[in-house]
Amino acid sequence: MSSEAPVGIWLASASPRRRELLEQIGVPLQVVRCAVDEAVEQAEAPADYVERIARLKVAAGVVAAPPGAVVLAADTAVVVDRRVLGKPADREQGLDMLRLLSGQSHLVMTAVAVACGKRTRLVRVDTRVWFRPLSEDEMRAYWETGEPADKAGGYGIQGLGAVFVERLEGSYSGVVGLPLAETALILADFGIACWQRS
Predict the structure, then answer these.
(1) Is 169 helix (H, G, I), strand (E, B) or coil?
(2) How many C-beta neighbours within 10 Å does residue 195 have?
(3) Has residue 171 got a pLDDT over 70?
(4) CA 114 – CA 125 distance, rounded (Å)
(5) Is 90 assigned a catalytic role?
(6) For residues 109 and 128, is the Cβ–Cβ distance under 8 A?
């Protein structure tokens, strides 16, 4: 076995959670920051939305990364009644999102796109999440922690918001932002192995 540097990927995402998940499964990476317009188009279905944004992000990443690099991008949306909940703009919107999720189930869709040159593969993983009923006091207290402000749907399952989740059906890591089982399979198709050592 040679002592060459591990073969890794370029992550087209500023999300620390996606970086941590890839590092968890031993995928060396470098981050490339790409700005794309993440606005939902009129009458756009949630599944179409997350897939389109993931494709836009990975395409921007391919342009920004070195030639021949393998680039990964992802997008996650919290969906209630076909309505995409993005990151809350302010406290009131954050509390409104939590009220909407309280005592109900919602869908978390994560699309993962991997590309190298003109070749792209995409997978979408949908997970159903059930919240227990939340009181106004705990919703306000949760907002004051600062955690919900930069999270799709106004909560983080990997953080303090975990106490709201009664159960889920699907991929826990997909709710965090990157479904690892599916991601590993796509990366393997591009010659990127998990469990590498730096």
Answers:
(1) strand
(2) 8
(3) yes
(4) 14
(5) no
(6) no
Please indicate, yes or no, whether the overall pTM of this predicted structure exceeds 0.85: yes
Answer for the pair 112, 178: CB distance below 8 angstroms, yes or no. yes
Residues 6+ apart with CB under 8 A from 16: none
What are 46-67's pLDDT values in tens digits?
Answer: 999 999 999 999 999 999 999 9
Contact 184/25 with Cβ under 8 angstroms? Answer: yes
Quote the percentage of the chain above a pLDDT of 90.
91
pLDDT recorded at residue 12: 97
DSSP string, 101-120: HTTSEEEEEEEEEEEETTEE
**Which tokens in the block code for residue 103?**
């005592």
Percent of the chain exceeding pLDDT 70 equals 96
Q: How many other C-beta atoms lie within 10 A of the C-beta of residue 82?
A: 9
- For residue 92, the SS3 value is helix
Burial of 101 (0-12, 13-18, 19+ CB in 10 A): buried
Q: What pLDDT is stored for residue 197 in this prediction?
A: 73
Structure tokens, 168: 């889920």
Are 62 and 117 a contacting pair, CB within 8 Å?
Answer: yes
Q: Which of 75, 81, 126, 137 is catalytic?
A: 75
